[in-house]
Amino acid sequence: MFLLRLEEETLRTYKALYEFTPNQLAVLTLDDLDELPDLCGQGYRILVPCAVELLENPSLLSGRIEGLNMTVEDPLSLLIEEAALLCRGKVKPSTIEVKKVLPCVADPSKVRFIAQVDVNVESLLPVLYLHLKRSNYIEALDVLTFTTDREELVSIYGSGKICAGKVKPERVEGFLSDLLNLLVKAFNYLSLHGPPPESLLEVRRKLNPNMVYQHLPKLNCGKCGEKTCLAFAVKLFLGECELENCTPLGEEKYRENREFLQKLLKPIL
Ligand code: SF4
């Protein structure tokens, strides 16, 4: 059950959330709070956009909670806390607008451009960092940079500003569509799972080919198509091959190493 004040910003948030989970989330107003026990019984998550009057008079709500046989010492704080957790995904990105297109300095046959996402995407950057293999996240500057499979260079700022380079002119539209899909996936992930743990980000920051190599079987058997485990580790690190290509790693004795590498190398989205 979640409680939100019905203000402009909150209204946008709850609309986004409602779209995200249309079959699980019921949106109630003050007038239909009596439906709350029934909906809870059906397994719905409840969102209550409420007026200041309710925030100032929590007994209005706690009466309903008692009806649900819930024992909560401070129902209002609990609900506000849950609402804050639910809102951590902020608002879903829906458009990216190109602001300026220029010739690419590195390759005149391509273009670079600046674009703007319609919402702040700061909270999505750590998720994308873990998802994208060839990425770098500088938290202090609030920016994520990555290289796409087509060797396009991308920087995403928390403010929603996008700088892209080495993009073929005819690819701009498809590039923006791919990027928006990626942001929406990250938004959905964040809404469901919350922010990635700092411990995972920390390990990801330290990830390098040697760390990957240290967790491979080190048999140099060539079954992955590479002559050595080190060569395979470099390719894995660069996202140029799949972990499953190393079949010996599937053996039970390597389970711990396999799970470690899967956690680091497999996209989280
Ligand atoms: S299949 Fe695995 S163990 Fe064999 S060379 Fe490749 S990485 Fe090393």
Give a description of the structure:
- By secondary structure, this protein is an alpha+beta fold.
- The protein has 3 domains: 2-89, no CATH class; 96-199, TATA-Binding Protein, CATH 3.30.310; 207-265, Electron transport complex subunit B, putative Fe-S cluster (3-methyladenine DNA Glycosylase II, Chain A, domain 3), CATH 1.10.15.
- The protein contains 11 helices and 9 strands.
- A 6-stranded antiparallel β-sheet has the order 4-5-9-8-7-6, with helices on one face.
- A hairpin with a 7-residue loop joins strand 4 and strand 5 (111-117).
- The longest helix has 22 residues, at 172-193.
- Iron/sulfur cluster is lined by residues 216-217, 219-224, 226, 229, 232, 246, 248-249.
